[in-house]
Amino acid sequence: MDIIQECFNNIGRSDINKNSKNLLSDGIIDSMDVVSLVSEIEKHYNKPIKSNFIKPEAFENFENIQHMITENMSHDSSF
């Protein structure tokens, strides 16, 4: 979860933390934040996140974001 926090910090959203919930559905983050966050995650792992894993529910909280990353890693041997 520290990696996710670091990614949020890197996109200028240090106001978001592991206790934040309903990030997308409550408008705490928007589509530009999602794009920036995905880019930061991809930079960190030096691998892309496949588009089929990028779903709105994946960005509701840190747990869902971590699950998206884990799922992407398990379905893509190059990740």
TrEMBL record:
Gene3D superfamilies: ACP-like. InterPro entries: ACP-like_sf (IPR036736). SUPFAM superfamilies: ACP-like. This is Acyl carrier protein. The lineage of its organism: Bacteria, Pseudomonadati, Campylobacterota, Epsilonproteobacteria, Campylobacterales.
